[in-house]
């Protein structure tokens, strides 16, 4: 027992642990913000898993084709936005089931990415690589957390910076008020002269662009290549994290960090445990934790009132 | 753009919707084929040939359709009650594991039971494993309002890791030279072949039989009525005195059991043992199949054969002409989206301009 | 010098939905400083007309001018910009947002980097003061009372500088006193030069507040009258256009207590929706439950439909304790009419015959070994349709295509055929049974309830429409914040008394009386 506590204390004191935590958290922060924006506007976007695949692929492909890294980021976000537009057409314009359309979008974006990858690289056996974002060495000078920050890339800082920005937009701008209104009572928004379809569409497009960015972090920063199955349920975890965060950006950051800390910890415990427990049990943890988060929050969750309710003009 | 409700959807429109969706899908995917640099006509011809062009091709398609009918039914029956079971993939794997647990460990005679008893026990175990795996999310949905889509999705990953755990440990086949593969089930428990020199097995008959049973239950029984009422309007169903929660939970058991049986069929009918790549997404394809069928249990059989044909045909076409076989997955996904739109258009008319 | 144009002019508005002509060649003018009442039954075309005015619909023919300027069709934004404000009957407010949020929405350009909330709040407070409509800008709408929410709705329009205010059935959810204060507000608005369109089907209040009355019937404008030159009788005749005699209650002998509630308490969403209820309903009487919506009436109805469990107290029917199980209530002969036909009463996507038997599908009459006896069920439905005069294309049609009145007849028929033909239910629980129905259907529903009471049923009628309660209830009790006042004979109530009770400010509620539970 004492040994375990000592290990834990060691871990929490080591910068390696916090470096890993931030790295694991980055795509979750971005993805969770993306889901949050969509859901505050009243639309569930289960396309996230596929959008992350597509963003990871196109962002990486652009860089591989010679574009610079930031262009790759933009390409990934544009891919996400395009997928978001498709989701908006299906769920907001045509009002089909948000659950099924999201799943369909995930299947579509994933399979299309894999297909495009195979068409682009028919013969390769080892994935081609790129030069990813470099750590921000200059930040080493920052007191206290310098070593942790210096190992991160610009995308991680961007993700963290987006949290207050999204929070500001939602709570403090007219656009954010419109977003919340269409997620709470679209008929009322319509009555005040807002175009519900346009606001929701914009929200889904913006949110999905962030999902695309979340995927691109994996290929442009965390790794240097595109693999099949590299998203591996991260998108679904983001959907759970949004509920855990009660649809608040600040809490979403907290949730993503907490989650990532658990993940980083389990990796270390796994190594420290020396194979006493099968590794699969450790790998199950993130998924089980997500489910646990959903259960814990279930009673308290204050869903946006119009979430998953299609809005058709003139229908009560 | 706006939507205008139609007074009623005609049967013909409902029947034509899936065909329109499939045609649209093939047209869209033709663009991808062209992008891959292959002649469109020839590609589709090869795909068709690969699925139906020979006795062997047909047998492969039917073999592939067998688990798809079952996962399609699993989705169809659950979606009917608006229980979005996206976890058929995990339920299938657990069903397969359960089949091996009963019919494979200790040479499949662990309890010294005759195959006559062991065989139904194996089916039961597989069904039960799938059913119980879905019971949790369904219970969370009815009791706490936890969205079942996310929980069943996440449980798919857990299920697969659990399979991996078992293949590394308890169920590991010591003869497999380090491949993650389970022990084989007792050959006496295998499903019989339906065609010589092919892999089509009697699981196909089981699947079709279950489709008829599910159809009958939905249409003619009080439970079937409750299922439809709960799915269409749960509040009204509760008001009319229907047991909404119980209906939901029983529906989950049925849906999970069907998916679990798909896993049993794959073990006992085709592979003989469990591997980690046993299902190339049969669970997810089941959703597409159910939607294409308009959730009609008998329609599921037809659309499962169609999806199986796409998967099998694409493999063979890919070998011949070099278009990546991921085209099959794109077709499946596009068909789902197209079908969603087609179904909507049977209920609403799209009008341009203002009301 | 030309004459100033009217505040609003509608010229020859026609709107068709398929074969239905919702508005047929309607021309109207509204002077500034005028209150125009738009009077008509449910389905007469009032809502369609204001929806066109507000840009939700586009008229097929005709056009609209505001203060002499043509109003672009089909654009709520243009209507708002032209100074038209709308107060919906079902408030268009987001419950989870604050009053200020609700008011500010859409008043600033969307791309503005930050909301000027301080200025907006000052303007809101100032507007509220000017018109005497006090409200806390930072309160969440969910915490406001119905009357306060309506104030927010009106403020929303005034904040935008509305010159023309449309109020859709504004008194439907108010107590008589709240209605009075609304009328005072309207008078103040008019004094400041605003024009008001007041939509209603209640003659008394139309005569009370308006300068002019326009009567719509079946899509046509049948008459406009200066209010002081007309009367109730003329307006009623114009509005209905045919002879409909609404049934009135008659003296009946009262039987034994059928339903007995004692100290019933039930929690819903963390609050006591029912708080110490005592009530007896006897055979042969109609007990009315009055109250402003949202004071526990829904919980009471659910309790008596078997879909809500009491946490404390006893619920007894014919001296037997009743569990919270809809099937048991049905089996004991309780007929139930829910408040919302579409959402609760029927499953719209299922055929009529399945809905007709849904409440007793599990009984031997309609199923055996879990298999539905389709023939029996369909035969029963045909009888029901005939007996209750439900108009439909066939019993296999989806139930959602029925009109409101026919849907309600189907639900009535299902409920009243409790134990097969000709048997009177023990208890009828009717929650807002005539909501949104035209007068013919209202008369039908009232007739059914009165007949059932005469045949010995105990009837509990929950309604927000005081006219309805005074017309057919024998005793009336008032609900306020989960408490139920002691019932009094209908003739012992005055409108003022009942209004005070609905506002929770007078004797008649037992709010402060402790219970020996």
Describe the protein in words:
- The complex is a heterotrimer of chains A (316), B (355) and C (517).
- Chain A has 316 residues and is mainly alpha-helical.
- Chain A is 72% helix and 0% strand.
- The longest helix of chain A is centred in the middle third of the chain and has 27 residues.
- Helix content of chain B is 71%, strand content 2%.
- In chain B, α7 packs across α8.
- Chain C is of the alpha/beta class and 517 residues long.
- Chain C has three domains: 233 residues, Rossmann fold; 179 residues, Rossmann fold (3-Layer(aba) Sandwich), CATH 3.40.50.300; 70 residues, no CATH class.
- Chain C has 17 helices and 23 strands.
- In chain C, strands 13, 16, 19, 20, 21, 22 and 23 form a seven-stranded mixed sheet that branches. A six-stranded mixed sheet of chain C has the order 6-7-8-3-9-10, with helices on both faces. Chain C has a four-stranded antiparallel sheet with strand order 2-1-4-5, with helices on one face.
- In chain C, β21 and β22 form a beta hairpin.
- Chain C is globular, with a radius of gyration of 25 Å.
- Chain C starts with 7 loop residues before the first strand and ends in a 15-residue tail after the last helix.
- Chains in contact: A-B, A-C, B-C.
Write the layout of secondary structure elements.
The complex is a heterotrimer of chains A (316), B (355) and C (517).
Chain A: H1 2-13, H2 15-40, H3 48-64, H4 69-93, H5 98-120, H6 146-150, H7 154-172, H8 174-184, H9 186-191, H10 196-222, H11 234-244, H12 249-273, H13 279-298
Helix pairs in contact in A: 2-7, 2-10, 2-11, 2-12, 3-4, 3-5, 3-10, 3-11, 4-5, 4-10, 7-8, 7-12, 8-10, 11-12, 11-13, 12-13
Chain B: E1 2-5, H1 11-35, H2 40-52, H3 55-80, H4 88-103, H5 115-144, H6 148-168, H7 203-220, H8 222-232, H9 234-239, H10 244-271, H11 282-292, H12 297-321, H13 326-347, E2 348-351
Helix pairs in contact in B: 1-13, 2-3, 2-12, 3-7, 3-10, 3-11, 3-12, 4-5, 4-6, 4-10, 4-11, 5-6, 5-10, 7-8, 7-12, 8-10, 11-12, 11-13, 12-13
Chain C: E1 8-17, E2 20-30, E3 35-39, H1 46-53, E4 61-66, E5 69-70, H2 76-81, E6 84-87, H3 99-104, H4 117-130, H5 146-159, E7 164-168, H6 176-191, E8 195-200, H7 203-209, E9 212-217, E10 220-226, H8 232-240, E11 257-268, E12 271-282, E13 286-290, H9 297-305, E14 312-317, E15 320-321, H10 326-331, E16 334-337, H11 341-345, H12 352-357, E17 367-368, E18 371-372, H13 374-387, H14 404-416, E19 427-431, H15 439-454, E20 458-462, H16 466-472, E21 475-480, E22 483-484, E23 488-489, H17 495-502
Parallel strand pairs in C: 3-8, 3-9, 6-7, 7-8, 13-20, 13-21, 16-19, 19-20
Antiparallel strand pairs in C: 1-2, 1-4, 4-5, 9-10, 11-12, 11-14, 14-15, 17-18, 21-22, 21-23
């Amino acid at each position: 027992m004492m040994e375990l506590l000592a290990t834990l204390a060691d871990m929490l004191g080591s910068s390696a642990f916090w470096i890993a935590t931030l790295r694991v958290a980055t795509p979750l922060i971005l993805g969770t913000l993306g889901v949050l924006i969509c859901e505050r506007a009243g639309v569930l976007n289960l396309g996230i898993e596929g959008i992350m695949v597509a963003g990871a692929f196109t962002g990486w492909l652009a860089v591989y084709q010679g574009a610079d890294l930031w262009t790759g980021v933009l390409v990934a976000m544009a891919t996400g936005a395009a997928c978001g537009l498709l989701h908006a057409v299906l769920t907001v314009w045509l009002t089909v089931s948000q659950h099924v359309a999201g799943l369909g979008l995930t299947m579509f974006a994933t399979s299309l990415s894999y297909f495009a990858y195979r068409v682009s690289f028919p013969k390769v056996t080892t994935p081609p690589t790129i030069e990813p974002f470099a750590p921000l060495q200059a930040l080493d000078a920052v007191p206290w957390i310098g070593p942790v920050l210096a190992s991160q890339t610009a995308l991680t800082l961007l993700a963290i910076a987006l949290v207050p920005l999204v929070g500001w937009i939602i709570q403090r701008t007219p656009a954010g008020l419109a977003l919340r209104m269409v997620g709470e009572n679209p008929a009322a928004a319509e009555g005040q002269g807002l175009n519900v379809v346009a606001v929701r569409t914009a929200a889904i497009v913006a949110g999905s662009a962030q999902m695309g960015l979340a995927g691109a972090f994996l290929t442009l920063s965390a790794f240097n290549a595109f693999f099949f199955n590299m998203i591996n349920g991260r998108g679904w975890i983001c959907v759970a994290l949004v509920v855990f965060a009660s649809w608040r950006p600040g809490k979403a950051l907290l949730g993503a960090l907490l989650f990532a800390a658990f993940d980083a910890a389990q990796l270390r415990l796994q190594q420290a445990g020396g194979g006493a427990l099968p590794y699969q049990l450790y790998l199950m943890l993130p998924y089980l934790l997500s489910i646990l988060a959903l259960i814990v929050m279930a009673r308290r969750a204050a869903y946006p009132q119009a979430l998953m309710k299609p809005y058709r003009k003139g229908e009560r | 753009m706006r939507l205008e409700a139609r007074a009623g959807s005609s049967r013909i429109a409902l029947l034509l919707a899936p065909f329109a969706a499939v045609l649209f899908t093939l047209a869209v995917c033709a663009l991808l084929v062209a992008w891959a640099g292959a002649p469109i006509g020839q590609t589709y011809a090869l795909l068709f040939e690969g699925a139906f062009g020979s006795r062997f091709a047909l047998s492969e398609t039917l073999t592939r359709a067998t688990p798809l009918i079952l996962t399609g039914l699993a989705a169809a029956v659950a979606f009917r009650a608006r229980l979005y079971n996206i976890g058929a993939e995990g339920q299938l794997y657990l069903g397969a594991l359960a089949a091996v647990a009963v019919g494979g460990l200790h040479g499949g005679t662990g309890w010294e039971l005759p195959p006559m008893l062991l065989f139904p026990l194996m089916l039961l175990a597989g069904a039960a494993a799938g059913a119980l795996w879905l019971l949790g999310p369904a219970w969370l949905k009815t009791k706490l309002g936890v969205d079942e889509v996310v929980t069943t999705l996440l449980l798919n990953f857990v299920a697969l890791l659990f399979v991996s755990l078992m293949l590394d440990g308890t169920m590991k086949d010591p003869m497999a030279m380090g491949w993650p593969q389970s022990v084989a089930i007792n050959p006496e428990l295998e499903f019989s072949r339906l065609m010589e020199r092919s892999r089509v097995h009697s699981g196909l008959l089981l699947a079709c039989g279950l489709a008829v049973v599910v159809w009958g239950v939905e249409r003619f029984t009080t439970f079937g009525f409750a299922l439809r009422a709960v799915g269409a309007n749960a509040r009204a169903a509760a008001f009319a005195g229907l047991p909404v929660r119980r209906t939901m939970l029983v529906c989950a058991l049925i849906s999970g059991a069907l998916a679990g049986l798909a896993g049993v069929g794959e073990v006992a009918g085709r592979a003989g043992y469990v591997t980690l790549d046993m299902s190339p997404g049969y669970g997810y394809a089941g959703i597409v199949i159910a939607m294409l069928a308009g959730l009609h249990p008998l329609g599921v059989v037809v659309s499962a054969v169609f999806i199986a044909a796409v998967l099998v045909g694409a493999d063979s076409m890919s070998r011949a002409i070099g278009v990546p076989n991921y085209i099959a997955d794109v077709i499946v996904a596009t068909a789902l989206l197209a079908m969603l739109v087609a179904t909507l258009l049977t209920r609403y008319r799209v009008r341009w301009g203002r009301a | 010098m030309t004459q100033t144009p009217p505040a609003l002019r509608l010229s020859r508005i026609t709107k068709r939905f398929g074969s239905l002509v919702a508005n047929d060649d309607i021309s109207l003018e509204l002077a500034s400083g005028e209150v125009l009442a738009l009077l008509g039954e449910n389905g007469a075309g009032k809502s369609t007309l204001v929806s066109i005015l507000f840009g939700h619909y586009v008229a097929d023919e005709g056009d609209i001018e505001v203060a002499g300027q043509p109003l672009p069709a089909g654009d709520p934004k243009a209507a708002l910009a032209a100074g038209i404000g709308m107060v919906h009957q079902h408030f268009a407010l987001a419950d989870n947002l604050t009053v200020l949020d609700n008011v500010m929405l859409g008043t600033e350009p969307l791309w503005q980097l930050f909301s000027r909330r301080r200025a907006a709040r000052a303007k809101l407070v100032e507007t509220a003061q000017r018109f005497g409509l006090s409200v806390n800008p930072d309160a969440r709408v969910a915490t406001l009372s119905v009357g306060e929410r309506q104030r927010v709705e009106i403020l929303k329009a005034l904040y935008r500088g509305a010159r023309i205010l449309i109020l859709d059935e504004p008194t439907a959810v108010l107590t008589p006193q709240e209605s009075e204060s609304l009328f005072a507000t309207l008078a103040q608005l008019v004094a400041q030069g605003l024009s008001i369109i007041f939509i209603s089907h209640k003659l008394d209040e139309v005569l009370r507040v308006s300068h002019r009355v326009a009567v719509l019937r079946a899509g046509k404008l049948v008459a406009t009258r200066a209010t002081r030159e007309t009367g109730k009788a003329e307006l009623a005749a114009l509005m209905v256009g045919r002879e409909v005699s609404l049934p009135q209650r008659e003296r009946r002998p009262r039987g034994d207590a059928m339903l007995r509630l004692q100290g019933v308490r039930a929690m819903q969403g963390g609050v006591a929706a029912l708080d110490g209820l005592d009530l007896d309903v006897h055979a042969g009487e109609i007990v009315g439950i009055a109250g402003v919506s949202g004071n526990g009436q829904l919980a009471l109805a659910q309790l008596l439909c078997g879909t809500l469990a009491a946490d404390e107290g006893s619920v007894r029917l014919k001296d037997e304790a009743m569990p919270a199980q809809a099937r048991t209530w049905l089996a004991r002969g309780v007929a139930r009419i829910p408040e919302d036909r579409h959402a609760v009463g029927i499953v719209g996507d299922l055929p009529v015959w399945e809905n007709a038997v849904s409440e007793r599908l599990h009984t031997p009459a309609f199923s055996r070994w879990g298999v539905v006896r389709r023939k029996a069920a369909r035969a029963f439905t045909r009888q029901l349709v005939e007996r209750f005069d439900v108009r439909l294309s066939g019993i296999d049609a989806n139930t959602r295509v029925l009109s409101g009145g026919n849907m309600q007849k189907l639900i009535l028929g299902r409920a009243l055929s409790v134990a097969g033909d000709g048997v009177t239910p023990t208890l009828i629980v009717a929650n807002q049974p005539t909501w949104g129905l035209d007068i013919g259907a209202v008369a039908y529903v009232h007739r059914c309830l009165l007949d059932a009471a005469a045949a010995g049923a105990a009837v509990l009628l929950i309604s927000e429409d005081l006219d309805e309660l005074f017309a057919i209830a024998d005793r009336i009790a008032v609900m306020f914040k989960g408490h139920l006042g002691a019932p009094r004979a209908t003739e012992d109530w005055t409108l003022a008394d009942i209004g005070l009770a609905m506002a929770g400010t007078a004797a008649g509620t037992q709010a402060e009386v402790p219970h020996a539970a």
